Amino acid sequence: MLKTSLLVPAFSKFSSLACIKSDLIYKNPYNRLKQYLEVPVLEKDNIFSPDVETIFAAQELFIPNRFHSIKFITSGIGPEKFPNHDLPEVILMGRSNVGKSSLLKAIFRNVPSLLIRTSKKPGHTKTAQFFQIGSKLCIVDMPGYGFNQPEWIEDVLESCIKRKNCVRTFLLIDGKVGVLESDEVAIDMLESFRAPYAIVMTKIDKTADSRLLRNILHLKNVKKSSVYCYAQPFMISSHTYEGLGNLLAFIGHITGNLELRNTKSISSE
């Protein structure tokens, strides 16, 4: 396999990806953390680790062009306000101030015209927001739970998650603080919906490796009895982009937009 340092210059003339901050977008944080453990956090077969070419293809999904527009389409708190389309949808949900807006900005970094609505006040966003990626997929940003959460958040979550075109929900956990009681409630709720979901640990660039490992191990214990959670938590830095490529490749595959090479097939287990 070609080294990442050689691949990026070779591809940059065909794409706006030349503005990538570093090659950390191609890195899997598990490879950095496993040096501290005698026993792996995850079994080898449960680590989603696509190759560089696959990650590059995944990023191309999130670059607009003449025939592939990326835009905000609507927001709302009930099914009557949700878009009527057949695009596969993925949902981002998490505690207030967990880093959802930062993750969205990282995902859409090549779409400077796209406004990601944020607030300095945790819990201020009150609606589900839908972002359309061409004719490929839709990302749904849910209001944060916990502090100042809307009373109806569970109902609107259920309405979104049970839509026929929802393929996965991503539950964001703050990598600095780990799983809180409100996160455990969210996990129990997702299990009750019987819909596949995956965990994303954010802010790993602001978290010491030792604390991140403790939080990952605690999460592994919390979700021992889970049925619908994907085995691997994804670790992400929205600032350095470390781990982001893995997540984008996962999203590309589960929405039917990306074939995987040299990695384990995906299930809801």
From TrEMBL:
SUPFAM superfamilies: P-loop containing nucleoside triphosphate hydrolases (SSF52540)
Keywords noted in UniProt: GTP-binding, Magnesium, Metal-binding, Nucleotide-binding
Domain EngB-type G: 86-257
Alphabetized CDD domains for the sequence: YihA_EngB
A GO cellular component entry from the record: mitochondrion
GO molecular function list: GTP binding; metal ion binding
Name of the protein described by the UniProt record: GTP-binding protein 8
Gene source species: Trichonephila inaurata madagascariensis
Alphabetized InterPro entries for the sequence: EngB_GTPase, G_ENGB_dom, GTP-bd, P-loop_NTPase
